Structures are given as structure tokens and as C-alpha cells.
Amino acid sequence: MGSYIPSTEQQRKEMLEKAGFSSFDELYADVPAEVKLAKELHLPSGKSELEVSRFMRALAEDNKVYRSVFRGAGAYSHYIPAIVKSVVSKEEFVTAYTPYQAEISQGVLQSIFEYQTMICELTGMDVSNASVYDGAVAAAEATVMCRNPKNNTIYISKAVHPDTMKVVKTYAWANGREVVEIPLKDGKTDARFLEGKSGACVLIAQPNYYGLIEDAKEIGEITHNANMKYILAVEPFAACVLPSAREYGADIAVGEGQPLGMPVSYGGPYLGFMAATDKMMRQLPGRIVGETTDHDGRKAYVLTLQAREQHIRREKASSNICSNEALCAMTASVYLSAMGPKGMKEAASQCYAKAHYLADELEKAGYPRKYAGDFFMEFVTECEDPKALLEKLDRKGILGGEIVDKGILWCATELNTKEEMDELVREVQK
Amino acid sequence: MKTVFERSVPGRHCTILPACDVPERKPEETRTAPLRLPELSETDLSRHYTELAGQTFGVNDGFYPLGSCTMKYNPKINEEIAGLEGFAKIHPTQENAQGCLKAIYLAEKYFTEITGMDAMTFEPAAGAHGELTGLMLIKRYHELTGHPERNEIIVPDTAHGTNPASSSMCGFKVINIASAEDGCVDLEKLEAVCGEHTAGLMLTNPNTLGIFDKNILDITRIVHKAGGLCYYDGANLNPVMGIARPGDMGFDCIHLNLHKSFSTPHGGGGPGSGPVGCKALLADYLPGRRVVKDGDVYRYTEEKPESIGKVRSFHGNFLVMIKALTYVLTLGKEGIPEVAKNAVLNANYIKSLLEDTYDVFRKGTCMHEFVLTLERLKKETGVSALDVAKALQDYDMHPPTMYFPINVHEALMIEPTETESKETLDKAAAAYLEIYRKAYEDPEYLHNAPHRSPIGRPDEVGAARHPKVKYDFEG
Fold first, then answer.
1. pTM of the model
2. Which of A166, B80, B105, B418 has the most CB atoms lying inside 10 A of its own CB?
3. Is A227 inside any structural domain?
4. How many domains does one find in chain A?
């Protein structure tokens, strides 16, 4: 058994005595006998590090690691430069608490300030928070920012990630806001549906769940004409080559930051990013780092605008969120710094080009695209028996796309070589 | 320190990607806004973060007795296991993931046993997220049992700030109640606010004063009698795990902070994990799908129609759960109560070294933490809790939690955890005593503390008044 307790038997005895106790039991005098556990927990006995390592490694080996991955659908495989893991494994960063004590936390605070700047660059927005739990929660929190006492209706495109739709609905139910789904036309958000509508906000994804590039500018204009706020969920690679969220007219930009240096990890930890216009700064949830000076005029970073937050405002806070994914935010900034502007644009261009190459080849092999229109990194093809096709690929060590309404949602990133894609096409050739 | 943007040199870059091996294609509409990411060599980048790390204080840099945060040592084996390709490279929707399903299954089994619950979800990504999820279960319960009028959550004044904030996020009205003289729940006040609008009570036990509320069974009975449910904020589970279970205290649902009691690192503010456990009466309302075992095969159940719906994408912070599972397997049934007892011992020991000098807010045995009130010191010397906290930074240790709980004036809240040695506690106590002496000899020195950190106290008011929240490229 391990417990990481350093004190020896002798020391424990001395400490008990100094504190005025004769036994450990006396420490629990306030715990009523009725609630004290009468028997030991029904758990296995503690194990040595080597035994635990063997056990957990065996679990990991029960999972299939694919040599070739063509699935995204909200969790994307990209190349992660070696420097990223090296930096974010530094013990100071890993084991620090939330930087409340600014004087001894300048490193973490500055890294968040830099992250906020990079998210503002990606999205074109004025202000970013220090992160939220994931992309789905970022979207839900953005709808909370748009609360409007007169009309609380949220319009949300049916082509956002299905989990985003679910999470927004859960949050909306919890505090009594209505959600209306915007129908699709040929896989894209039907902008005309919004004409004449009123409410609090409109949320769409760019590109959408099917990889299609939405008419995001037009939807933004309709939204603003109806006096609603416009929330755009953007994909960070697409954001480097497509017009920025700001250029599309967004009031709030949100997204899933996992692709920026985090492995897919069976779903987490991930990173939700959120950025807004200056006007909405004080509605942003979560931590925000600001630059200031100390009493000698030296540059200093602090957690700021805390009057929004739960530890000050309690039930009147703009959100209950406090610390969330700081190390993931740092991961994203190290990743973006390692790639640089040219590297990000190159990676994004390769995702675009490779997805288009794969779509063309799959079409030749008998799998036409389901929806017309420009797309980024992902696309849906027709497929009569997607399950059988995915099983066939699985046997070859290839993770095929995600099954979506009688088709398959494929994904290609800079990680997928031409040979891999050609092999995939050969395998599925009709 | 220079920002990463100030280190940037146009044209510099790392060599990461090969040339594209398929024909180039361009999107129909493209970005015109600049993309001012830093341009650095790997050396620049590596040194930048090494410098930042040098100005960051982690558990590995020294004693970190932040009350209610349980800053225990973060075992290395947990990190190694979570980094295995067989976990890190698994796509969240892939079928072939029996190891992940088994891990979730085992984690649910072990953590429900530790807490006395019947079911658990690992979707919530942090403690506050868990609170919100647990409150949603309570809301759903009242909705589906025909009592939507139950819209009040009772929160004692010693509660973490997230409790009332989570209640508001969930559409509840918050009923704050003042604690009794001894810092525990005032039973009369509790009875007075319980009624037909009561949805539930949120409580942490031991509370944030480090006191185990000995009336806990009466408290949960009063709330249940009024038709409400009881929510256990698991932030302070460390001193009672393996000793007493929230389920046996009468709680209906709980959240755990895997980054507190279960040793996963805090990461400078996340990622954590806030799984939510509940009794059978709430199990159908849990978010997402659960894992069951059919013979030797693990599979997901269908999501229940009564479910509150999802609170996060996919399966939550899966790798954080893997670290906590590794820890629980290491401790086992013997190690868990061992941890609890030594956490309580360490707190009482360091308290005994300080209590003749400082004023402890509530005398008597504490659990994992205790609260000092520096009201008298401030009156006599002008030295505040903030001054003392800042002065402690000069002793290579992290200050305790300050000005919390809110019902204690000039509060310092100390939680040493079980992973600190007697030598560390002795050294820390000596520093506290030295600072106390200095308060009478040279208060000015303490007003200006810290003296050894890279910066002095920052101007927080100025930061909030003129927010500068990103690098100014033009400036």
C-alpha cells in the first residue's frame, strides 16, 4: 500500500501527544457513532507502484490505438510538437494552484495573459477569458451571457456539435430559458428561418458539425437586425484561414481548444475558449488576467474584474465557474507559439487540402458527398452500410469517420498522409 | 519579463510540418485580419517558459497549506499512466475502448463506495461544475415528483462561494443562514427556513472552519422532513474518507474534487474533475450514459429520458479520472482512512504549535483545516491577515487561504494535508511565530511584504479600473 504520508510511526506518536491526543480515534470525537463506518471500505487492498502500473497498463492495452485516424466529430488528431509536452510537464505549472497570490504566480498569470491575447488574435475579438471547461460549455456560457429579461429565447443551429446542442439545452432548462433549433437546408443553417424572429441570441458553428462553411456573415446580419446577440462557435484551425469571428460579425466567439496541442484523450481534459467584444467584457464568465503595476511601478499580472465572480458576488455572480482548464490553456499557447502564424496557416491549409483530396477520391470510389458547398477538414459522404464499412477499416487498424444520418462524417488533418488516404480509399472501393 | 510577443522576431519559426503531399486548395472565402501569433525558434520558446516556470510556485516548490484546496503531493505514477497512448490517443466516440469503459466502471464502483452513493457521473469537469450538476438533479427530482414550486436552496454562511453561485445558475433562490456560535449549522434557523419551497440544502462537512458538524443527522433529517434534498459539497472529503460517508450522513447527492482528495494536480487552475454521485432516487436523472458490465464485456447504457441532459461533451475530463483511479488503487481500503487520519493529525499538530500565539477562531479539535482570526493582531499592530499572508511568501511557502470563510474577520485558513512531514510543519510554524513577533517590532516591514518575490503587491484596483487584458501590439 502507498499513501504518500512521510511521517514515521514515532513522529505520529509525538505529534499526537503534542496536539493533546492519545490516539487517532480521539481526533474524530465530533463524528457521531451512527455515521462512523463500522467496517472497512469494500475496496481492494492498496498496491505497490509496480502492481498499480501493471494493472493500469493492462487497461490501456484493452483500448485500440489506431495507426490511421479519419475521425474528428469534435475531437481532432493533430501533430503535437515535442516542445508542447515538455513545457506543460514542468512541475511548477502542473502543481500550482489558481494564481490568487500574484507575487509568486507571475509565470502562470503571464501565460494566461498571453493565451488571452492569442485567442483574441484567432477570433479577432477584443477580450478573452482564461478558459472554460470545453467547447460545449463555452457555447452554453455564451448563451448565459446574452440573458435578456424581455426575451430569453436562444436560437441554435441544428448543425452545431450534438453535444453542444445537448449542453446548451441543459443549461437553458436549468435557468428557465427557451431553446429553438434552427432547421437545416442541405446541411447548412437555414438563415431564412430567423427572419422576423426575436429573442436573446443566435448560435451557429463555423464550420458546422458536417464540416460545411456556413454563410456566417449573412446570419450575423439577420441576427443583429433582430436585435439579438450573435454567438459563433469557431474551429481554431479553420479560424486561421477563414474570416475571423469578428469579420463575421460575432458578439461572442467560442470554441473547442482541444485541437491546439491536446490529445483526444477519450474526451478530456479539453479547453473551452471564449472571447467577446469590449461591450460584453463584464458579462464574461470565469477568470480574466489583466496587466497592472506593483507599488514600485514594475509590470505585474493579476486576476482581474473579479467583481463578476462567485467568490465575491456569491449568488449574484455572472456564472458559478471558477478555476477550470488553466494547464490546457497553457498547452494551447505553447502550441500556437511553436507553430507560429505561418505554421498555423500551413497546418490549416493542409487540413483543407487533404480533406478535399480525400473527398474527391472517395467520390471516385463510389461515395459521393452528401451536401454541396465549401467545407473545411470534414465532410459527409453517402454510405449504405456505414457500420460494416467501419468494421472493415477497423480490422486494418484504421479508425473511419463518425456515423451521421445514413452517412459518414470523415476528417482529414495534416497528420494524414496521401498514402494513408489512398490506402483508405482502396479499402472501401466498391 | 518579456511577453512571448516581445520575444517574437519576424521570419523566425520552428520546423514542424512537412510540405503538403496533395494538391494545394484554397477556401472560397479567406481571412483578411492579421494573425499576430509569436514567431520564435524552439530555443526562444523553451527559455521563455522556463523563465515563467521560475516565477510560479507549485506544491513541489514548498509547503502549500491553502485551506479548502487540499494541496497534497501529486504522485508521478498518476501522470505517467494518464500519458499512456492507450488512454491519450483514444477517440471519445471509438467503439474499441474496453479499457476506458472498464476504468469508468471501476471508478464509479470505488468512488460510490467511498462516498456511500449508488451511482456516479464523471461528466462534470470541476467542483463548481459538479455543484451545478448536482443541483440540476435536485431540480429535476422536484419537477418530476410534481413540486416545481420547490425553488429554494439553503446555504450556510460558511459555504464556498460557488454554492450560492451554482444555485443561481440553476435557477434557484438562495436562502443564506448564519452559523451558530460554534460555527456549525444553527438547527433552529435551519428549521425556520425549511418549508414547502425548500428544494434542498448545500453543505460541506467538515465545514470550511474545519469542524465536523456533530448534528449532521439532525440537519439532513430536518431538510428531508420538509421535503428537500441534501447536497454534499465534497471539497472537504479528505479528512473523513474511509472514516464516515456522506451517504450515511443522509446526503442524497455529492460532488468530489478529484484534484483535492484524490491527488490529481491543480495545473495552476485546472484541469480538475468534479464527478457527481447520488442515491438511487436520483440515478435516472444523471447526465449522459453509464457503463455496465455484461459478462466480461463493458458497455454503455442508453441515456434515460428523465436525464437532465449532458453538462459537458463526451465523458468529462477522462484522464483526470484515470489519475484519481490510479491513486485509489495505490491507497486501497487501508490507505484511504490512513490518509484521512494523518490529514487531521497534521492540522491539529500545526494548530497546537500556533494556538498559544495566534487566535484560533474555534478552539477544540479540528479536522483537516482550521481558521485563525487576526482581528486582535490587527487592532494591536495594524498588521492584517493580508500582511501576514504576504510575509509568508518570503519563507518559501505558499500563504494559506485568506479572508475566508466570510463570517470570520481577518481570517487565515490553514490546511496542511497528510503529505507534509513533521519537519515541514515545524518549520512553517516557526515562520508564523516569527512573523507574529515582527508584527509588534516592525509592522511597516510586514505592510511592505513580500520582499523576496519578483514583484511587490500589484495594484488590483488599477487593473480592474483600466482593464488591459491582452498584449498591445501597437503600444
1. 0.98
2. B418
3. yes
4. 3
